[in-house]
Write a structure and sequence with these properties.
This protein is an alpha+beta fold and 318 residues long. The protein has 2 helices and 17 strands. Residues 1-17 form the signal peptide.
């Protein structure tokens, strides 16, 4: 019957809709178990296979990893044991900054650095680091015109110093204000996506659940060292807060088109991008077109066969 052919057409159209997912539709991911951390955090021997922690860090296996508690002069860290060597990656972290005080500080940081577990004055980590630091700064020292909490990124070359007195203004290459990220009513998350030499993007979730706010995106990312450790640290001074890591989910990103990099706006010829897009779309169109042809042929044959059988029965009846 024609129902068979129509069903095949509908399935083909559904498949085409699933494939056509826009510019980033060809990006796939593989979970990086070595850099993923979830409850209960610790193994049977009360240590983590993939992460080390130290300083004032507290691990509650049913709740959180607290880098610093809501008490003065706290300093804690959490770092991966093995380096992150993926060319393209995405790290999504659920965290929580909270406390009962009206005055609070100082904040926490996410690291992708050559060093690991080095304690110091930069949100609990050593200064003059080499690699990338993302700072969630909750206390304003001297940044006129900037709303805090403030999230900023800094690339360290091993020689440049982070200046706490002006909240790193001189060494910031990207950032955004994130009012409401502390004591939020929903799970707060960050998502850092990196394509080597192509793009670096930071997204935040703190206003509405499952709604990401773009903090920054650059098509000229810093040259992050090829071998870096993923880590987190936090500190408190006279003012304090709880800085918790709830979960870490890391992924290795790759493309299905045979290229290890992602096309980014503003780079390359628009004609070449359109050519590649048309080439990819054309191959899928031809593939689905052949499926439709086969479905129509089968459906037509079935209808013809049914009509022939009916005619034969009528002729035998008389």
């Amino acid at each position: 019957m024609w129902f068979t052919a129509l069903s095949a057409l509908w399935l083909a159209a559904t498949a085409w809709g699933a494939v056509d997912r826009g510019e980033d539709g060809n990006v796939r991911s593989i979970a990086l178990r070595t850099h993923t951390l979830k409850q209960p955090y610790l193994d049977s021997d009360m240590s983590s296979r993939w992460y080390d922690f130290g300083g004032d860090t507290i691990v509650r296996t049913d709740s959180y990893i607290r880098l610093s508690s809501d008490r003065p002069s706290q300093n804690g860290w959490l770092f991966s044991r093995v380096p992150l060597t993926a060319t393209n990656w995405e790290v999504e972290v659920e965290f929580k900054i909270h406390g009962k005080n009206q005055l609070f500080g100082d904040g926490f940081a996410m690291w992708l650095t050559k060093e690991r577990g080095d304690m110091g004055p930069v949100f609990g980590h050593a200064n003059n680091f080499e690699g990338l630091g993302i700072f969630f700064d909750t206390y304003k020292n001297n940044r006129p015109g900037v709303v805090f909490p403030y999230v900023m990124a800094m690339f360290g070359d091993g020689k440049t110093t982070y200046n706490k007195d002006n909240d790193g203004k001189e060494t910031e290459f990207a950032g955004c204000s994130a009012r409401g990220i502390r004591n939020a009513n929903i799970p707060t998350k960050l998502k850092l996506t990196y394509f080597q030499d192509k793009s670096l993007k930071l997204e935040l979730q703190y206003k509405t659940e499952d709604e990401w706010q773009l903090c920054f995106e650059t098509t000229e990312p810093p040259a992050i060292p090829s071998v870096t450790y993923l880590g987190f640290s936090a500190e408190t001074g006279e003012l304090s807060d709880n800085h918790d890591i709830i979960s870490i989910e890391a992924k290795n990103l790759y493309t299905t088109g045979g290229s290890a990099t992602r096309p980014t706006p503003g780079k390359g010829s628009s004609k070449s991008r359109q050519k590649n897009k048309n080439k990819s779309g054309g191959s899928w169109t031809w593939f689905l077109f052949k499926i439709v042809l086969v479905a129509l042929a089968v459906g037509g044959a079935y209808v013809g066969y049914t009509a022939w059988r009916a005619n034969q029965k009528r002729s035998h009846r008389f």
